[in-house]
Amino acid sequence: MTKIKFGFSPTHPGEVLKDEIEYRKIQQRMLAKQMGISYKILNDILNERRQITITTAMMFEAALDIPADSLMHLQLKYNMQLAQKDNTLLLKLAEIRKLASASIF
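User: That's the sequence. What structure does it adopt?
Assistant: Structure tokens below.
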């Protein structure tokens, strides 16, 4: 299996959401209240310190009409790109591939 490479920096969904709420001039505290989450959680997502979950993606969709599946796709791509840069994981995957290629099924 080949290593997937990306020619750009990963985009955290919080970056997209932050741009959108700034464009719409929505206050973070009001959005957090509307969504029923703490300001800290919302702020952590918008500042890329916390991942979005299926639940929060669906809440953003309800509040901002941004498709939850698009947000989750961004999160998945972001996570995959970070994993591709994790040298410990890459070494482990190489070892797994080596052992798997030596196995007879």
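The two ends are 18 Å apart (CA to CA).
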